[in-house]
Design brief:
single chain, alpha+beta, Alpha-Beta Plaits, SH3 type barrels, 2 domains, five-stranded antiparallel beta sheet, 18% helix
Length: 169
Amino acid sequence: MKSGSLNWYVLYVKSRHEFVVHNELLKKGVESYLPSVKRLRQWKDRRTFVDFPLFPGYLFVHICADPGTFLSVLKTKGVVSFISLTPDYPAPVSPEEINSLKLLIQSGKEFDVHPFLKEGTRVRVRSGPLKGAEGVLRNKEDQYIFHVNIELLGRSVGVKIYADELEAA
């Protein structure tokens, strides 16, 4: 990757600091993208829509791929680190993924965030009547199937399940 080219990167930030970091980066002149959704919140005296980060703890920055810029962003109040696949070097995010995310949010259509789980992944059910059960994720005809394997018997029991009820085990 050549130095000086603009790329999107993911920043990991302190808990509940997404909007603070976003505003601090904008003050520094850094292009930042914080996808958010409005949710209805109830207080004792009122109900109102409040912005929440779509990916709590994360936001995106569009910056040059050079150490000076990385350091400047890391020194921003509330920033913890860049997300990287190799130690000490931030992993770029494809511009197509960012553009698709922006289009999805701007569309106004209702959507849900699901964990990114691949077929064959070991998962745990985090809600519903199967909460706490662990098994393996399979895909059958555009539906997820949660399998509990009894390896000693060489048998599996499967049930249809929604992806938002699962988390990586």
